[in-house]
Amino acid sequence: MARGSHTGSWREFPAENWIVLDHAESNALLPPSGVNLNSSWEVPPEVANKLLSWFYPQTEETSRSNRSRIIREALRMTVVTLDRGMARARIEASLRMVHSFYLGQDSGELIEAKLLGFMDFSPAERRIQRLRLVTEKATYNDEWFDAALRSVSRETLAAQSQ
Fold first, then answer.
1. Which of 4, 14, 43, 95 could tie 57 with a disulfide, CB 3.0–4.6 Å?
2. Alpha-carbon distance 10 to 15, whole Å?
3. What confidence tens digit (pLDDT) does each residue in 31-42 have?
4. Do 119 and 131 meet the contact criterion of CB atoms below 8 Å apart?
């Protein structure tokens, strides 16, 4: 979800996109080996790019085409708690990318963002329970914006559709 800071226009209302990760992509968010307190790992660029390329304020969307071109990204996880078979990882991310406002136009609008979040997961089952990521500081050219990512499991979606 994203919201721009420009008041008096449609930009002050939240907008959302859905990002679907397959099993391999979800697995790439998890640590590559055993988990200890303070274990850290970088999320592979292809998965980090899939998540971070949607962190921009509302723009004119007429298709699901991704108009973002990442210049630099980093998405790092660090285990901060281990309790009863569950782990929580702190997420720190940074992003610099170009995102065109209109489809088919490469206007060079620049996004700079720092993001924070957490991921709860079961190391033994290699299963993500919850993932949250928000902008700590983000600009689209000179405009501030806020964006957030919230995970929703397949089971939750199935239960809601009944």
1. 4
2. 10
3. 988 899 999 999
4. yes
For the stretch 100-113, pLDDT in tens is 776 666 677 888 99
d(CA 43, CA 47) in angstroms, rounded, equals 7
pLDDT score, position 119: 97
Answer yes or no: are the C-beta atoms of 113 and 98 closer than 8 Å. no
- Smallest CA-to-CA distance from 113 within 41, 57, 45 is with 57
User: For residues 57 and 143, is the Cβ–Cβ distance under 8 A?
Assistant: yes
pTM value?
0.85
Rounded Cα–Cα distance for residues 112 and 110 (Å): 7
Are 4 and 14 contacting, i.e. CB atoms less than 8 angstroms apart? no
Element (H, E) at 140: strand 127-140
- Average pLDDT rounded to a whole number, residues 133-143: 90
Number of domains observed in the structure of the chain? 1
